[in-house]
Design brief:
Length: about 425
């Protein structure tokens, strides 16, 4: 398809932001589905070129985006948003460059559409293939982070999907500026404008209309706090790919290298406290010899530590942990600490309190490490590494849409493959079933 064909085809009428929410979402969804059928005809190189133009457009719009973001940050500060949310919201020149680079990284990835997953030939001569195809029209509901606007758009376009984006009110100006810049580049590259649409209202009823749009929206992806995800899962009549909270554990086994354990624990908690891969609970083996020193590093680094009785006996600065602490995603410089009696105790604690996001063991015992990998049923399980590596970019996937913590369709960092499904191609030579 040429650029002219992609941008001049008739567009379904889309109502304004003042439309009744169900009608608005219906109109946007129908426009998105029409755009997706045109997007699906673009080749991999054509989609990559459009994304490269979108990245350039983002860089060219830096001043516009930063101006919009400054207004959002000012409003968020006046509203009393937490430090973690402000960190997620705030953009600067380096972060805008990071957003543009992430779009380019997605453009450089192999196109998943049309990839053969497997191929078999039956005894009767039928040849069967499973081939990746786009899911269709996705609805993405997210909070705080304006970079999600670009990440989601890039991933969806590369995988051949159209998308309806609904960002949080705290980032509304930033999202609009990023979306406008992205679409300018995409349209220049031949992608229909309606393939990436930003919901033009912050009316919460629009979210409800998205969740009820069965038959129009093919999948909903929520990215935000526990309240948002819980509402989406409870109310959706559309399939949901859930990104739950990140209650991430690090277990320091008694055979851990002390220097490594101290470095990993400090980084896992304090590198960036507001990301979903930040450690929220530290489990210290009762026989680990440097627990007090490790906890001292965290306390000296400005972390509030809440622990059980054995942890509190190591440092007077440690506060008593409540029952709720073990199930809390702090997203700030607060950490819960428990002392455990070996691998089994650690695995049991994780099974009871982990959100299934990312859990880590630090140990020099290879046998214990393999047992931990086998026994812990989280989307990401690590040995001797900071949980802050739980990120699609670090996994070599480019930008990600989130960390899926469920068990169906996609798990862990959701990037291009997670945004596709497959169909069966069956080639025969006249076979009939007896």
């Amino acid at each position: 398809m040429t650029s002219t064909e992609a941008t001049t085809a008739p567009r379904p009428e889309v109502r304004t932001a003042h439309s009744e929410p169900t009608e608005l979402i219906g109109d946007l969804a129908r426009a998105g589905r029409a755009a997706q059928s045109r997007l699906a005809r673009l080749s991999g190189p054509e989609k990559a070129h459009a994304l490269q133009l979108a990245a350039s457009s983002l860089r060219n719009a830096e001043a516009e985006i930063l101006g919009a973001n400054a207004q959002d940050v000012d409003a968020a500060q006046k509203a009393g948003l937490s430090g973690a949310l402000l960190d997620r919201l705030t953009l600067d020149a380096a972060r805008i460059e990071g957003i543009a680079s992430a779009v380019e990284a997605v453009a450089a990835l192999p196109d998943p559409v049309g990839q053969t997953i497997d191929r078999t030939e039956r005894p009767n001569g039928l040849v069967l293939e499973r081939v990746r195809v786009p899911i269709g029209l996705l609805g993405i509901i997210y909070e705080s982070r304006p970079n999600v606007t670009a990440d989601a758009a890039a991933l969806c376009v590369r995988a051949g999907n159209a998308v309806l984006l609904r960002g949080g009110s705290e980032a509304v100006r930033s999202n609009r500026a990023i979306h406008a810049a992205l679409v300018r580049g995409l349209v220049e590259g031949g992608v229909p404008a309606e393939a990436v649409q930003l919901i033009p209202t912050q009316d919460r009823a629009a979210v409800g209309a998205m969740l009820a749009a069965a038959g129009l929206i093919d999948m909903i992806i929520p990215r935000g706090g526990k309240g948002l995800v819980a509402r989406v899962q409870a109310d959706a009549r559309v399939p949901v790919l859930a990104h739950l909270d990140g209650i991430c554990h690090t277990y320091v086994h008694h055979a851990a290298d002390p220097a490594m354990a101290r470095q990993i624990a400090y980084n896992a908690k304090l590198r960036r406290t507001g990301i979903c891969g930040a450690m929220e609970t530290l489990l210290l083996d009762t026989q680990f010899p440097e627990s007090a020193a490790l906890l001292g590093d965290l306390l000296d680094g400005g972390c509030e530590v809440r622990g059980d009785a054995r942890a509190r006996s190591m440092d007077a600065r440690i506060k008593a942990a409540s029952a709720e602490d073990w199930d809390t995603e702090y997203l700030e410089a607060v950490l819960s600490v428990a002392v455990v009696d070996g691998l089994g105790d650690a695995v049991n604690h994780i099974a009871a309190h982990s959100s299934g996001h990312t859990d880590v063991i630090v140990t020099e015992d290879a046998t214990v490490a393999e047992e931990f990998l086998a026994l812990v049923d989280s989307a990401i399980v690590m040995v001797n590494a900071s949980s802050q590596f739980a990120d699609g970019w670090e996994f070599g996937l480019g930008a990600e849409i989130g960390i899926a913590t469920g068990r169906l369709h996609a798990r862990g960092p959701v990037a291009l493959e997670g945004l596709t499904t497959y169909k069966w191609l069956v080639r025969g030579s006249g076979q009939v079933r007896p």
